[in-house]
């Protein structure tokens, strides 16, 4: 990622090299080679996502990619699919929005072979939904559980295989449950077929479940001591495959993450310790070995019994007995009796391994149950399901586990075919839509081969053999194979060989070794072992084995095959009730290295995933279809005839809507009950128009609410400010009821001032003030208050360098809010205040002092948790800064005394070290602002003369040192208004105290307008008379248009008109906003200075001194 100038280039930049096509529906040629080539181009340029219409293709990059941060979350949230490059966030956002819009459950089916990136894709979906959905503390807790369930279940259910370093050895369907407001407030995990055989055996080069390695690498020394933890190669269950470390996995840090996940989910410290105790117990069980003693098994070294017995809370002798013998029930002559049968070495090893597998499986079930309990909710509104299940597997030797895994993947492929290929084409026929059928391979024939009962499928025959030969171990597999050859050998997708059979799956031919099929399908834990675990002195372990051994057993025992068959069909039923979304994951290589592309492997995956057929159906079909009623409900707002309800035939209402938005006839078809829209762009057009409608209404509501909230806030701020000076200071007549604005300098457009502030620092208050030095000489400063600091910014001439002689802004003082010692003010109506700080004080004259003090007091209390010290007196003391030169250089103090005078203008009389300020009496100290001025007027046109607020007509804009525009302060206008006027009238513009006169136009001043602007040195001058409230000497802006040729005369209007000399922003709801040179119709003239006019269809009040009649 590089940058040029101020522009940052990233993966989403539109001016970078385009890699293939984003949506493969747009490919010019539709064949496997073109699809593979397009995916390769994008993969090599780090574009791992590609669309086929709504289906997302994801290629595993085998490295961390940079585009999964907050920036991308913000980019894809609420955006249409076509607006941004393909991304998993787009699919996740589409699911979430569809759930909220259609009020229908959603699911995403992530498919692909092992190592293609399915689990990572599921994590990104859950992470995105967690980040974009709102909610409080309870919702956040559910989000934390959703996210933390991943590392916990991966620790106990994932392992390194030959094809994937973090392969899911179980399947899970995670339902995120939402409230009606779209907040995740619950969830549920369903897990499928944990590969528990991995605990005791695996292929060379593979590992057992991660948790065993995490415990050994990450446990504390005291934990290792109590659990008997030592080196990895000490444990028989781990050293058989001679694979301990994985390059991109840190077992030590992952252990800490696993323990943290247990804590978040709510597993108690005691239960966490017991879980680890069982994990260690499983490892120690594997070290128990057997020797042959007279054709029977005996424990080779009994010292290896001690640790597993201790960790599992069982008797050592009892453990030995249950591993080397088995109790069998025998019925003879109507009587039942128990017989102890001594096991041989092979049977003893099998019994030991069965106990280890059962312990790990029961702990895994406990963790799933704990997660579900932590997320349980009383009722369910809507949910999004994420299916993360093991991928299709083809190994050198494929057994019962691969058979079950591939069966589940076959069922998921069947869903994809049913819903995207078969169902879509059948729907066109049912609805009478013109359509050219497309051929595709339907794998239902393979699913039937495995699961049907009549004729019997492979699972049915397997269960039958297990039931008839339940007491016989040897020969069962060969019997099953013989039955398969007899009953289904003629099936076109089945072949047999001498040690097993071959199934022609959708992903290719897989050869299964029948050895161990029947034993693993029985999946029965011997009663002896259950009794052994139920005898544990540890309640937690007893609770893991709740079986009732005394209950009568009727019927056949449930086999592993029948369990997974039922789970798979239940899963299919759940998915078919949701609106499905698809992610097809592709593994580009077997080396697990980035940028390595194996053409043949990818092409094989493209073929068996049916991507070519998917593209053809998508190109020929319709991207969107909806029932007429749902379509009308969704888009009724687009026309007045359909809003709020269409009265006629639903089909005609849909047709009316489509014609109203000018959709081309070839872009849609109307079926018998549904509307079909061809291109996604046409649908996006409808959505965009709908959103604009709602956006307009929402903005109107927002404006009304914000106006109400702002007025309420102003009342509160004004009252808080008034409370600070109540009974302590006299008030100005015309500033008592004014609104607080805060930023009077327009800081958003003042980069020369912004540069002194921190990035994105909020502005609480900004205005021009007069700062007095030790000789009481006044000079202008910009006073800025932020949540952290008070800034005083002045101007100085540059003395050296290329900008010599120019005036530039200089930071004169920066005071952290918490370091302010207090403020001192007089008891009169003047604008003076002293800002006290440890080093020295600042004597300021601030027109909006009450607003500034109230905001500063609030920030001070936030920082220090105490009130801002305020002192009111007729004598103020100012501590000076020590200077290094001149007769006034010594540090010391100055005094400001206040005397009763005449009028509202302060008269200053400096004398040596004292400044005497004379000012007339203001409003009484106990005066409070009135609330009536904040009442909303119901209509600007019906407003009477008596309803005019106290605000005077504003003065015209004045020149600014940087050439920008700002309006004169309202407070200054209040003070210059005639004091004897009634407070419920706006002051007349033509009275004796009119605040300004229109400037004289000097044509010469417009010449050379484009030349370099000269600095305005007015900011360095002392204000006239040095008194508060007196207007500072400024350069007035001339009336626009001087020196230009007169335009041709316009026809005389029906009513009098005026032309705006300056731009004006409305300060109230019943005022007009206008730009310079706008022509306004005069509805009514009023002596108050506020005229009523009409502009662009809106009628309102405006100040007459901003316009001239034409």
TrEMBL record:
Q: Does the keyword Heme apply?
A: no
* Gene Ontology molecular function: actin filament binding; ATP binding; calmodulin binding; microfilament motor activity
Q: Name one GO biological process term.
A: endocytosis
Disordered: where is this region? Answer: 922-999, 1025-1055
Q: Where is this region: Actin-binding?
A: 568-590
Summarize where ATP binds, as residue positions.
112-119
Indicate whether Nucleotide-binding appears among the record's keywords.
yes
Instruction: Describe the location of the Myosin motor domain by residue ranges.
Output: 19-691
Give the record's keywords alphabetically. Answer: Actin-binding, ANK repeat, ATP-binding, Calmodulin-binding, Motor protein, Myosin, Nucleotide-binding, Phosphoprotein, SH3 domain
What PROSITE patterns does its record include? IQ (PS50096), MYOSIN_MOTOR (PS51456), SH3 (PS50002), TH1 (PS51757)
SH3 domain boundaries: 1053-1110
Q: Which Pfam families match?
A: Myosin_head (PF00063), Myosin_TH1 (PF06017), SH3_1 (PF00018)
Stored Gene3D superfamilies: 1.10.10.820, 1.20.5.4820, 1.20.58.530, Kinesin motor domain, Myosin VI head, motor domain, U50 subdomain, SH3 Domains
Entry's family note: Belongs to the TRAFAC class myosin-kinesin ATPase superfamily. Myosin family.
Function description: Induces bone resorption, acting probably through a signaling cascade which results in the secretion of factor(s) enhancing osteoclast formation and activity.
- Quote the protein name from its UniProt record: Osteoclast-stimulating factor 1
- Its source organism is Anguilla anguilla (European freshwater eel)
């Amino acid at each position: 990622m590089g940058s040029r100038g101020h522009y940052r280039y990233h993966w989403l930049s539109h001016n970078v090299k385009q890699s293939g096509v984003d949506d493969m529906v747009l490919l010019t040629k539709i064949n496997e080679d073109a699809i593979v080539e397009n995916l390769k181009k994008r993969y090599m340029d780090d574009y791992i996502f590609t669309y086929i219409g709504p289906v997302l293709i994801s290629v595993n990059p085998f490295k961390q990619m940079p585009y999964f941060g907050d920036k991308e979350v913000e980019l894809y949230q609420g955006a249409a699919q076509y607006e941004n490059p393909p991304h998993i966030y787009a699919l996740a956002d589409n699911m979430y929005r569809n759930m909220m819009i259609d009020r229908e459950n959603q699911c995403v089916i992530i498919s692909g072979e092992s190592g293609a990136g399915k689990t990572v894709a599921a994590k990104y979906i859950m992470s995105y939904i967690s980040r974009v959905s709102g909610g409080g503390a309870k919702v956040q807790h559910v989000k934390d559980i959703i996210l933390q369930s991943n590392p916990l279940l991966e620790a106990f259910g994932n392992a390194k295989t030959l094809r994937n370093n973090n392969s899911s050895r179980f399947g899970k369907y995670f339902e995120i449950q939402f409230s009606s407001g779209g907040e995740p407030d619950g969830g549920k995990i369903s897990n499928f077929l944990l590969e528990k055989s991995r605990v005791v055996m695996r292929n060379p080069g593979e590992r057992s479940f991660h948790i065993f390695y995490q415990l050994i690498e990450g446990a504390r020394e005291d934990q290792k001591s109590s659990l008997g933890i030592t080196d990895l190669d000490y444990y028989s269950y781990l050293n058989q495959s001679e694979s301990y470390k994985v390059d991109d996995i840190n077992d030590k840090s992952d252990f800490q993450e696993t323990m943290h996940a247990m804590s978040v989910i709510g597993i108690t410290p005691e239960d966490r310790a017991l879980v680890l105790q069982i994990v260690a117990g499983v490892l120690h069980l594997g070290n128990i070995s057997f020797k042959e003693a007279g054709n029977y098994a005996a424990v080779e070294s009994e010292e290896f019994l001690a640790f597993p017995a201790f960790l599992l809370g069982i008797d050592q002798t009892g453990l030995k007995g249950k591993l080397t013998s088995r109790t069998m029930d025998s019925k003879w002559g109507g009587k039942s009796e128990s017989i102890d049968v001594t096991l041989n070495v092979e049977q003893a090893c099998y019994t030991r391994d069965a106990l280890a597998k059962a312990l790990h499986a029961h702990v895994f079930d406990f963790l799933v149950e704990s997660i579900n309990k932590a997320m349980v909710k009383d009722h369910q509104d809507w949910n999004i399901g994420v299916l993360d299940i093991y991928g299709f597997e083809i190994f050198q030797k494929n057994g019962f586990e691969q058979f079950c895994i591939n069966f589940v993947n076959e069922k998921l492929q069947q869903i994809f075919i049913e819903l995207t290929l078969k169902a879509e084409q059948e729907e066109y026929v049912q609805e009478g839509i013109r359509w050219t059928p497309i051929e595709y391979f339907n794998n239902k024939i393979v699913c039937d081969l495995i699961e049907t009962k009549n004729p019997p499928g492979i699972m049915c025959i397997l269960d039958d053999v297990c039931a008839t030969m339940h007491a016989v171990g040897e020969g069962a597999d060969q019997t099953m194979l013989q039955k398969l050859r007899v009953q289904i050998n003629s099936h076109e997708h089945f072949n047999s060989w001498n040690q097993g059979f071959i199934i022609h799956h959708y992903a290719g031919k897989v050869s299964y070794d029948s050895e161990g099929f029947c034993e693993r399908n029985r999946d029965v834990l011997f009663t002896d072992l259950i009794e052994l675990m139920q005898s544990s002195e540890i309640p937690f372990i007893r609770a893991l084995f709740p079986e009732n051994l005394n209950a009568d057993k009727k019927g056949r025992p449930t086999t592993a095959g029948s369990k997974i068959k039922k789970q798979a069909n239940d899963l299919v039923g759940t998915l078919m009730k949701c609106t499905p979304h698809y992610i097809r994951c592709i593994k580009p290589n077997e080396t697990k290295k980035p940028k390595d592309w194996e053409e043949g492997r990818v092409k094989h995956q493209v073929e068996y995933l049916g991507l070519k057929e998917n593209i053809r159906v998508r190109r020929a079909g319709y991207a969107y279809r909806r029932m007429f009623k749902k379509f009308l409900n969704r888009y009724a707002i687009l026309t007045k005839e359909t809003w709020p309800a269409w009265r006629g035939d639903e089909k005609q209402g849909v047709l009316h809507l489509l014609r109203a938005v000018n959709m081309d006839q070839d872009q849609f078809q109307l079926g018998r009950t549904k509307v079909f829209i061809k291109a996604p762009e046409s649908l996006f057009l409808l959505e965009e128009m709908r959103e604009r409608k709602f956006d307009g209404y929402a903005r109107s509501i927002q404006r009304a609410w914000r106006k109400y909230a702002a007025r309420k806030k102003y009342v509160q701020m004004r009252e808080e400010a008034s409370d600070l000076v109540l009974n302590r200071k006299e008030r100005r007549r015309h500033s008592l009821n004014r609104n607080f604005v805060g930023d009077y300098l327009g800081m958003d457009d003042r980069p020369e001032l912004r540069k002194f502030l921190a990035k994105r620092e909020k502005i609480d208050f900004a205005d021009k003030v007069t700062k007095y030095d030790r000789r009481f000489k006044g000079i202008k400063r910009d006073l800025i208050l932020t949540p952290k600091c008070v800034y005083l910014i002045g101007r100085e001439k540059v003395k050296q360098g290329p900008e010599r002689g120019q005036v530039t802004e200089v930071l004169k003082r920066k005071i952290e809010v918490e370091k302010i010692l207090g403020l001192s003010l007089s008891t009169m109506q003047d604008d003076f205040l002293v800002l006290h700080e440890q080093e020295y004080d600042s004597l300021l004259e601030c027109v909006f002092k009450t607003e500034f003090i109230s905001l500063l007091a609030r920030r001070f209390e936030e920082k220090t948790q105490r009130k801002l010290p305020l002192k009111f007196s007729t004598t103020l003391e100012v501590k000076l800064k020590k200077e290094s030169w001149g007769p006034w250089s010594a540090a010391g103090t100055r005094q400001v005394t206040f005397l009763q005078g005449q009028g509202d203008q302060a008269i200053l009389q400096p004398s040596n070290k004292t400044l005497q300020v004379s000012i007339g009496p203001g409003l009484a100290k106990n005066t409070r602002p009135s609330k009536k001025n904040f009442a909303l007027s119901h209509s600007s046109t019906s407003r009477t003369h008596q309803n005019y607020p106290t605000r005077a007509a504003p003065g015209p804009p004045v020149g600014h040192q940087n050439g920008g525009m700002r309006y004169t302060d309202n407070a200054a206008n209040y003070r210059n208004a005639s004091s004897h006027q009634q407070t419920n009238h706006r002051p007349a513009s033509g009275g004796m105290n009119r605040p300004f006169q229109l400037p004289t136009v000097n044509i010469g001043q417009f010449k050379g307008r484009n030349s370099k602007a000269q600095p305005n040195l007015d900011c360095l001058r002392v204000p006239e008379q040095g008194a508060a409230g007196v207007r500072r000497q400024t350069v007035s802006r001339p009336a626009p248009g001087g020196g230009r040729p007169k335009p041709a005369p316009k026809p005389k209007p029906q009513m009098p008109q005026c032309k705006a000399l300056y731009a004006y922003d409305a300060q109230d709801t019943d005022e007009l906003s206008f730009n310079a040179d706008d022509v306004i119709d005069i509805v009514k003239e009023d002596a108050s200075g506020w005229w009523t006019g009409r502009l662009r269809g809106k009628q309102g009040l405006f100040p007459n001194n901003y316009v001239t009649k034409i």
